[in-house]
Write a structure and sequence with these properties.
heterodimer, A: about 525 residues, alpha/beta, Rossmann fold, 2 domains, six-stranded mixed beta sheet, 17 helices, 24 strands, B: about 350 residues, about 70% helix
């Protein structure tokens, strides 16, 4: 209270900052997550915060919203210092955070979730009318229609994301912080969200926007703050920079020019053959993957791609269809997940946190989990060999830091994904299935994962990739099948594939009018 | 920048571009949605099944309903309190021991009133201690309350001198077992009152409603500014208090407090909650569900006893019903069917050697 707010150094917009974070530092264990970072946001500004995973973006945002207390530095709201580590104080001061990990309560209704933490009451009893009014108002403000009495558990991921934003808006914030809000959205939903944020900013709300997706930032951002290894690299006006420059600042080095560069595909024999696959969400699909070929599955979220690959692998039961894996002149029929893995499939699932990794176990343990047989003598595991083996694989995938005895949960998302890859590489699979291999992964790690996937194919493996990230799909795939409603709507080879063509098939629109329009989208509930 | 650009009336014209929410639909559709949102569906189905079967096989369990109601109240009361804790994703294994020790404590006092008050306060205190270990010390609630289970059972034996303790004012206590309103004994009436109170608490009151947030997504609850620690204390105190109340009622009805009381209550109350659709991980379930679960179990037990079925066999049947309740949700059934068909198709075709 006593401190007179010094006039912010950036007088660019000519307005006093709503939030002024000064010299924030925070360490976790020995890791300096945020190191002396300052950041000021003015009303009506969309301020993008970018950086690779582990750059300290989330920690900084969690400090601003009072979830964690910084080791040093302070957050000023309208020149008044905020009590550190107090979420209620931050909320009261008008800082509202939309989490990366959805933070809704699944078995409560939309209305209850929107007012959660500040439920209106009347003598201890919930004032339901007021609750509905607040919720309806917030939803109207962001222009989304949802049944107020619907349970969150019955909503699609996209709708949950919008409810989450409505909740933040309902708190009448002065600053809205969004952490990767578009990670689970389709292009049309993303369009809608970005327009919505622009509208909110036009009404004077200050927005802090965290994203890996550079095009989004250039579309709506006013200024960009770049973080790297916990340090503030620079804050620039969007008008004065370009995407390449921002990426360079993020990674601190020139990215090897991998983007757009295609491998010379030389597909061999058919390795994976799936015929007439039917399962919940999959309505009769045939597909083949050849040795050395990367087959991409495109489509909107909920089109049935994950269901398809899981049915192919036997990870979820099929109601009909046949899958075979052929190599070395032997055909293996795949009828269960166990059979798939034994025959030589590798699977990197969409939800690596829940399906692909044991987060509380070390990298070594995770890598060797599916490789125990050839690392043991009889039933006894050979520790030294295991360690060497894990270290080797960690090196191949470029794990950072390359400490295989660390718990997987302590690595960043991109590096966790590398551990999943390493785990399967160790088995030397003949066919590998990747579902959204780079979701939520930073640019640097993404490039490395792409390199690894291409190397797998060059090695003669059959690769099947599901991706909602169009540039990634186009860059990696030799052939793209576009899936909608559990069916293949079209197949594009490298020569004819482009974003518009994929989107047209995926959304069911006629070709040519697809890209960027926000008129329709299919979201399954 | 955006302040300078004053666009003429591009204001919030609510863009209905994104068809995200489902349309309300007709009455049938709305009804179906309302049912799908409930967690008690299976409990209702199971209870109906049990009632119909019992009506055919052993109708006495329904005609002599005061006995059955008494049984339901016995299982149900503890289950209701327990549900408050389970909704927050915690367990309270100490409920049966709390029941025993509070009965013994009550009977140790010369004055019935003083005994009751001390016993109930004791129940609250037990809840406080449980919650302290769980949210302040940070011990898993299974372990913390497992400790309580042993500690309190031991205490009940020590206080009672390993003998049933006669309630001081036996005449008053004897009255307690008699019907008060129609065929309803005080036990049943208290059960009804506790049911209504807890139901209103978790559906209509902010504190109770936030139990769902604490159990469904604890981190979100913290982030939203819900005082999670206080909520967990409240939950354990409810469970402790209700268990102690059950102990007092038991001792009053029998005019004596037995340190071995409530042996079957622990598992029966958990079973009632689970059958009623209360998710052990928290965040999902209802007080109504726990009531339905208790009713299912109570009717089943009474009818089996009246039919002269041995207790051991009764346990087998109850165990089967519990499993049936848990696996009978539509998702599980579909999964089992699909697996079976995959398995069978695999068998029917000769496989080339691999």
């Amino acid at each position: 209270m006593s401190e007179q707010p010094t006039v912010a150094s950036d007088a660019g917009v000519g307005t006093r900052p709503v939030v002024d974070a000064r010299n924030i530092s925070k360490a976790f264990g020995g890791v300096q997550a945020v190191d002396d970072v300052s950041l000021a946001v003015v009303p009506g500004e969309i301020h993008a915060v970018v950086g690779e995973n582990g750059a300290g973006k989330s920690t900084l945002m969690r400090t601003l919203s009072g979830i964690i207390a910084p080791d040093s530095g302070q957050v000023l709201v309208d020149g008044v210092a905020l009590q550190p580590g107090d979420t209620r104080a931050a909320l009261a001061a008008g800082i509202s955070l939309v989490h990366q990990e959805l933070s809704l309560v699944p078995e409560m209704t939309v209305a209850e979730n929107i007012v959660l933490g500040s439920t209106p009451t009347n003598g201890g009893f919930i004032d339901r009318r007021e609750q509905r009014r607040i919720a309806a108002e917030a939803l109207e403000e962001i222009g989304v229609t949802v049944d107020l009495d619907e349970l969150i558990s019955r909503l699609s991921m996209a709708l949950r994301q919008f409810v989450e934003i409505a909740r933040a808006v309902a708190r009448k914030p002065r600053v809205l912080i969004l952490d990767e809000p578009t990670a689970t959205l389709t292009p049309a939903e993303t369009d809608y969200l970005l327009d919505m944020l622009q509208r909110l900013a036009d009404r004077g709300l200050a927005i802090l926007y965290i994203s890996h997706r550079i095009p989004e930032i250039f579309r709506i951002g006013d200024r960009i703050t770049v973080l790297r290894d916990g340090q503030h690299v620079d804050t620039v006006d969007v008008a004065d920079t370009d995407p390449d420059a921002v990426v360079r600042m993020m990674v601190g080095r020139e990215l090897e020019a991998t983007l757009g560069e295609h491998r010379e595909a030389d597909p061999g024999e058919v390795i994976v053959s799936a015929k007439g696959i039917r399962a919940p969400g999959v309505n009769g699909i045939d597909l083949e993957v050849r040795a050395g070929e990367i087959v991409g599955l495109g489509g909107l979220v909920g089109a049935g791609r994950t269901e398809l690959v899981r049915a192919i692998l036997g990870a979820d039961p099929r109601t009909d269809g046949e899958v075979t894996l052929t190599y070395d002149g032997v055909t293996h029929r795949i009828n269960s997940y166990g059979a798939a893995i034994r025959a030589g499939f590798g699977y990197i699932p969409e939800e690596r946190r829940t399906d692909g990794l044991a987060l509380t176990m070390s990298v070594t343990d995770n890598i060797t989990l599916p490789n125990r047989r050839h690392l043991s003598r009889g039933t006894i595991l050979e520790r030294a060999r295991i360690k060497r083996f894990a270290a080797q694989l960690a090196d191949v995938v470029g794990l950072r830091p390359p400490d295989v005895s660390r718990e997987v949960g302590q690595f960043s998302g991109g590096n966790q994904q590398k551990v999943v890859l390493a785990k399967w590489l160790g088995r030397e699979p003949v066919a590998i299935v990747l579902d959204e291999p780079t979701r939520g992964v930073d640019v640097g790690a993404k490039a490395e994962i792409h390199r690894l996937v291409r190397e797998l194919a060059d090695d003669g493996k059959a690769v099947l990739v599901v991706s909602s990230d169009l540039p990634e799909l186009l860059e990696l795939s030799d052939t793209i099948h576009v899936v909608r409603d559990g069916r293949i709507m079209g197949t594009l080879d490298r020569a004819e594939a482009n974003e518009a063509a994929v989107m047209a098939l995926a959304s069911g629109q006629t070709a040519g009018t697809s890209a960027g329009s926000d008129t329709t989208s299919e979201v399954d509930a | 920048m955006s302040q300078t650009t004053s666009e003429p009336t591009t204001e919030p014209e609510p863009q209905q571009g994104l068809a995200l929410g489902a349309a309300p639909g007709d009455l049938l559709q709305r009804l179906r949605t309302a049912v799908a949102r409930r967690t008690e569906g299976r409990a209702v189905a199971l209870l109906t099944l049990v009632v119909i079967t019992v009506a055919i096989v052993e109708p006495r369990a329904l005609t002599s309903y005061p006995v059955t109601l008494g049984r339901i109240a016995l299982i149900g009361l503890v289950a209701l309190g327990l549900t408050a804790v389970i909704l927050m994703g915690e367990l309270d294994l100490g409920v049966a021991s709390t029941l025993a020790v509070s009965g013994v404590v009550m009977a140790s006092f010369e004055s019935l009133t003083v005994g009751i008050i001390v016993a109930l306060l004791g129940g609250l205190l037990i809840g406080v201690v449980n919650a302290f270990f769980v949210v302040i010390v940070g011990i898993n609630s299974f372990i913390a309350t497992l400790g309580m289970l042993f500690f309190l059972r031991g205490a009940a034996f020590v206080i009672s001198g390993e003998q049933p303790v006669r309630v001081a004012n036996a005449d008053t206590a004897l009255q307690f077992g008699r019907p008060l309103v129609g065929p309803l004994t005080p036990r049943i009436l208290i059960f009804i009152v506790v049911f209504i109170a807890l139901h209103v608490f978790v559906t209509r009151m902010r504190v109770g409603r936030e139990f769902y947030a604490v159990g469904g997504n604890r981190e979100a609850a913290y982030d939203a500014g819900i005082p999670v620690v206080r909520r967990v204390f409240t939950g354990f105190m409810i469970s402790g208090f209700v268990s102690a109340l059950a102990g007092v009622i038991n001792a009053m009805e029998r005019t004596a407090a037995d340190p071995t009381a409530g042996g079957t209550v622990l598992l029966a109350s958990f079973a009632a909650a689970i059958i009623g659709g209360v998710l052990l991980n928290g965040g999902r379930g209802s007080i109504v569900g726990a009531l339905l679960g208790a009713a299912t179990l109570g009717i089943l037990q009474v009818s089996l006893t009246l039919s002269g079925v041995q207790v051991d066999v009764q346990n087998i049947i109850i165990g089967s019903v519990l499993l049936l309740a848990v696996i009978s949700d539509p998702a599980s059934v579909r999964r089992v069917m699909a697996r079976a068909s995959t398995f069978l198709s695999e068998r029917s075709k000769p496989q080339p050697a691999g």
